[in-house]
What does this fold into?
Amino acid sequence: MMSLEEKINLVKDVKRFSVEDLGIASNSSFERVSDSEVLYFLYASRKNKIESVINKGSYEFKFFKKEEECDNAKKELEEQDYDTFKFVSELYGSEDCQISKQLLERSITKIAFNVLHENFHIHCRKNGIYLNYPIEEATANYLGYQGSIMYFSNKDKSIMPFVEKDLHEWIRFVNFVNKYKRRLSKAYEKNKIKHINKLFKKAIKRARIMGIRCELNNAFFIRYSHYTANHHYVFNALKEINPRVWLEKEELYEILNKV
It folds into this structure.
């Protein structure tokens, strides 16, 4: 078990690794412990199709710094008969993001993944890299896993089985979300109400087996498909390429456009 101080040092060392070894743009994130790093993300969908009713540019969510404001907005949307999904995030892709107490409660591998993931978003902003939002999330995930493998293979090989387990569980989740979103979308198009209900029952049963405890509704699939829809596309494009190569703006654009 790592002490709190050791976890703080881990965050800082993974951040250092991302800049010095991977080529992430130097930035001021994750340098101190803060009480105010939690954000509340809100998603909402129509009930008769998986379609967001929140559209802010390329983003299909709103975020809040105060939970009460998020809950009030959630209640208003539900009163309009929309599905909603609230997600609490302990960190985010901005240089303002520091080390939250919630992040320090996570496992060693999850801490490393999250620091790498969010630093990719910061890297994009600092280098003028503009990707379609779901592509950017999938790419941030790839750096999170690839970077974790590279980091722990040099620091502590005994951690590697846990990194591999995290990736295996993520791929299972990717396939789960993509499968049921695709099937539900087709059922909604044909207005097959009974089939939709059966699909949700199957999805809920499968989710419980996988350890997913949150509510499953259309807004859930909007939230997570942002991260899963392009997983295989991005992972296939970037595999076996050193991050120092593909983190360059023009290289990244060219590689992703080839697949």
The CA atoms of residues 113 and 144 lie 4 Å apart. The chain has a mean pLDDT of 93. The two ends are 42 Å apart (CA to CA).
